[in-house]
Amino acid sequence: xxxxxxxxxxxxxxxxxxxxxxxxxxxxxxxxxxxxxxxxxxxxxxxxxxxxxxxxxxxxxxxxxxxxxxxxxxxxxxxxxxxxxxxxxxxxxxxxxxxxxxxxxxxxxxxxxxxxxxxxxxxxxxxxxxxxxxxxxxxxxxxxxx
Length: 146
Known about the structure:
The protein is mainly α. It contains seven helices and five strands, in the order βαββααβαβααα. Strand 4, helix 4 and strand 5 (92-94) form a beta-alpha-beta unit.
């Protein structure tokens, strides 16, 4: 009846992500290639920006896949989501876990509204967001006519 579209950001803390602040993979022709890593201390500031930049939520394929199943999709807001779906009419956005729980209870108690949003999300997906349409848009952007 209700699907959760979870979009955790790829931001993480651990040995590998922290090591990437100081080291990178070497280029194919680099003398560091035999070690598998090369020092990258001089780009520490840029590496930190890149690491912190991974905190952004993004529209993923699962947004389209979930709504194509004619179910009510609920998700955290992702950058540019409104370019693809009308929030509140084709997809439901929650702010945090308490808000999610509140919205789940609401839509379980209001099945007609839930079904209306699910159907609208499905119709929009089939009309505008099939794999073929997404690939056509990508090819058009890079200047290739399909």
